[in-house]
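Methods: example folding runs. The two proteins below were folded one after another, and each record is reproduced exactly as written to the output file, sequence line first and structure-token line second.
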Amino acid sequence: MSPIARLLQPAASLYGYAVALRYQCAQPYRSVHPVVCVGNFTAGGTGKTPMTRYVVNLLRTESLVPVVLSRGYGGSIAGPHLVDPARDQARDVGDEPLMMTADAPVVVSRRRAAGARAIDAEAFGSMPAGTVMVMDDGLQNPGLAKDLTIAVMDGVRGLGNGRVIPAGPLREALASQLARTHAIVLNLGHNPSIKVLGNATALASRFAAKFSGPIVCASIQPNADTGWVAGSPVVAYAGIANPVRFVDTLRSLGADIRAHRYFRDHETLSERDASELLALAGTHGAELVTTEKDFVRLPHGLPLGQATHPASQASSELRARSRVIRVNMTFSKPDQQQLLTLLKSACHKPLHITPTRSA
């Protein structure tokens, strides 16, 4: 353990105790619909949102009807609120919920149980047979009972030093999290190297001794033709949990990175930021390229008088000139089949007749 981690260990112990106590005292709400949770063990980006989208589309192959339930991190609306991509801005509902409306209806609710109750009560319209709630994040949330929990891990960083926040990256003691997890997904990123594959194999072997569920590997791939990137001068910008991975992906696609700018995860760009990026692109004669998550944070144009947050000039121009690399999570056929088997088992069981609360 590093000296800093050792110094922070007492605070980490208190944090871990508080999380455990929260679970012990919780009375989770049990929805009438199956609930699938996609979470992670650690703070920071691991690929939860791409995995959530993957689960949503896998459910559709089974003729199920997914509804995403999100906390709406970064948004001002407490909810429960059905996201309207035509009117809502990222600062209202959060960037990830706005992005996922391309895949399924999204309900944001700071209190997940309240969001589930609203869906159960059909506050946003009738819920057909086969409705499944998909929680984007929430492995550590005790307020809503889950039928299946999938944890996504960074296949490169793993669990860091294995300590709880703030001494390390774990959001709770690992043993407690594993006890509530049914499957682990190791995210290997785009075009993983031999070293990354070796690290993932070693990580999976270590987990196999303490976890009986499936451990599968995923990669991140662009979901559209990216031939235009190869050889193109690019100014890249990203405000995600792991922006370096985005730039590395662009390089692997052959982009000529002339400049890049990193922002905080979920950060809304200022007019000055937008102007500087536009100037950089002009100086280098380069394309502006960003992530889908960053793109949805740029204000989209509604007429003045209708828009809650009218787009400013530089931000509007940045949105108009930025090209987006959209990515999907992909699996081998055997790994996909393991996930599908778990989903079918969780979602095709008899549904609850009425919402109940249980200790």
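Second run, written to the same file directly after the first:
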Amino acid sequence: MITASTWQGELRAAVTSVGELLRLLDLPVTAAVDLQEQLQFPIRVPRSFIARMRPRDWNDPLLRQVLPLAAERTIVAGFGPDPLHEASARRAPGLLQKYAGRALLITTGSCAVHCRYCFRREFPYQEHLDGAARWASALAELAADPSVHEVILSGGDPLSLSTDRLRTLVNALAAMPQVRRLRIHTRLPIVLPARIDAELLEWLHGITLPLVIVLHANHANEIDADVRRACVKLKSANAVLLNQSVLLRGINDTEDALAGLSEALFDAGVLPYYLHLLDRVSGTAHFEVDEVSACKLLGRIATRLPGYLVPRLVRELAGAAAKVALLPEFCEPGPLFIREDAAVRRQTDAKLSHPDVGV
């Protein structure tokens, strides 16, 4: 039964009005905020996430991730609807392959929270999720490909699906002998920890595939006692817990913020994995931190924390065979990071000639 106390009830009660969000935080309306309720990428924030925000503070790092700003409507060169050229990575409806040996299933277009920097904020979910047959062609494509050893459940957020639907999907994947690992990319344990309920845990305990769960937290303030309890539960299902973050200007682009995040993650049983430079989707230019500043920042983090708490700084480039790693800068002159070479630059705007290799 869905009640206000269940995760489904909390999801349905999420705030979907900019005005209500501001009222809950005792903040006035200003010209910088986009109050238009018919946003192309509408607001959605669980109330449990809002409860972690500081009232009357425009600079709260959690609020800044979800509050629509008028700046999103500014057209900026180099920012577009599909920054990673995912349209070229499509192998079947709902199935993308960017890198060899692993493929990504778009399980749903739904998320518990709409992060304003989301690189899939303009993703054509309707073209990938077609009614009752939404996964049929994707699963058939995977079953026929012996080279795919790891399947990544993504979206949207896969944990916004019911546990029964997840069970059906993963059972089909586990029946494929070539699939050796399952990875789930999810933000729900962070923004809606009630999702980690008894039914989900029972299912996770029964999964036969080795399981990696990649969470998404950007700031230590996101990780409260409920989130820590959710992570402990996930670890009890023998899941490897990793975290990936996005480097965001004004939110986590300081030494203290990133170090605090790594420490909070480790206290919750999660290892920092990736720190992504912003994917340049339309409407997100105000979040961008440049490469040189990012490398200098990671250099300071690397001298402050043990190596296992320092995430890999990466940029995803359309056409690259893997994420491009950027090395921390420890000394002058110039950053000591790996730049994409001319071949990768050419690939960025070119479609691949082989349909079975994703960008």
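Comment on the second run: The longest strand covers residues 240-246.
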